[in-house]
Design goal:
The chain has helices spanning 2-8, 57-71, 90-103, and strands at residues 13-21, 27-35, 44-52, 81-85. It is an alpha+beta fold. The protein has a single domain (2-95), classed as Ubiquitin-like (UB roll), CATH 3.10.20. Helix 2 (57-71) runs parallel beside helix 3. The longest helix has 15 residues, at 57-71. The protein is globular and about 40 Å long.
Length: 104
């Protein structure tokens, strides 16, 4: 985690949450982040993975909040999160609306 924190320090980032179902039928969500660079490709990192009871806008928004707090335990750097990347599933659109509350 320290390496990830050093990598994103003083940089703008994007965040994506994607879920899958494992072989036991559990929902596993992966939080992926990347740095936004001007003149070169940014670095992409797996921030965390978590098993979710169910997949909906509320669980995704809570995972986002928890993950950002994990990245910045001494205070979320709201201005450094520029993009939230997701698919267009209706619950994702709703979770993005909830996530805006966390950031602004």
């Amino acid at each position: 985690m320290d390496k990830i924190r050093v990598t994103v320090q003083d940089k703008k980032i994007w965040v994506s949450i994607d879920e899958t179902t494992n072989s036991n039928g559990r929902y596993v969500a992966n939080v992926i982040i990347g740095t936004l660079e001007i003149d070169c490709p940014g670095e992409i990192m797996l921030l965390t993975s978590e098993v979710l009871e169910k997949v909906n806008h509320s669980t995704r928004a809570k995972l986002f909040d928890k993950s950002i707090a994990l990245l910045w335990p001494n205070g979320v750097q709201h201005n450094d999160v520029l993009l939230f990347v997701s698919d267009a599933a209706p619950y994702m659109v709703k979770s993005a609306s909830v996530i805006k509350v966390f950031l602004f």
